[in-house]
Amino acid sequence: MDFQAIIDSLPSYWSAMGVTLKLALIGILLSFIIGIFCSFVIYFKIPILKTIVSVYIELSRNTPLLIQLFFLFYGLPRLGISFSKEACGIIGLAFLGGGYMGEAFRGGLDAVPKAQVESGKVIGLNQLQLARYVIFPQGLTLSVPAIGANCLFLLKETSVFSAIAIMDLTNVTRDLIGMYYLTSEYLLTLVVAYAIILVPMGLLISWIERKVRYGSFGN
């Protein structure tokens, strides 16, 4: 094991970690917004939009991110539409994550007790007020475990970005192995780099889940 080679590669991994985190966080944020929109469309059964959103969720969740990236990066330019490779990564991650987040939020919204929704209607709340003050706060709380799992899933999916030449952690590792043939050293560094990102995030999500659970049930 050549530890000096690992030390020499750390600047490259640090830069790649920044790229991975930036694209992942933007993609997760966009998927969060898309998921909220989709869940409300389905929950309130908005005509026409409900069908469109349902088709989108099935399409996004049943096609691999790799295929989506290939379509965005290689397919769309043939139609005269082109994006930078970073933009393709973000769009692909948001497209994939939006479907998963939409289902996570929908599950939380469906779990809100119907008695509370009916109580809101009795005191005169309209649909918007019901969504803002009754349904969304409780639905979001109930969705936290699924949302956390989706965030970790999307972070790990960034490893596919190397397929369109984004200099993320996986692509940097592949380049270093190709140049120096130190497979074990650079794969070990890749695993450690992802662990540095994912382990703290997993602990943070677990902490948030506990806080939400205590706040909901007083335990």
Task: Describe the protein's topology.
Layout: H1 3-43, H2 49-61, H3 65-75, H4 85-110, H5 114-122, H6 127-157, H7 169-180, H8 183-217
End-to-end Cα distance: 49 Å
What is the CATH top level name? Answer: Mainly Alpha
Overall pLDDT score: 88
Total domain count: 1
CATH 4th-level superfamily: MetI-like
CATH topology-level fold name: MetI-like fold
Any low-confidence stretches, pLDDT <50, length ≥5?
none
Architecture per CATH nomenclature, i.e. the level-2 architecture: Orthogonal Bundle
Task: Give me some keywords for this one.
219 residues, mainly alpha, MetI-like fold, flat
Q: Would you give an account of this structure?
A:
With 219 residues, the protein is mainly alpha-helical. It has a single domain, classed as MetI-like (MetI-like fold, Orthogonal Bundle). The protein is built from 8 helices and no strands. Helix 1 runs parallel beside helix 8.
Describe the structure concisely.
This protein has 219 residues and is mostly helical.
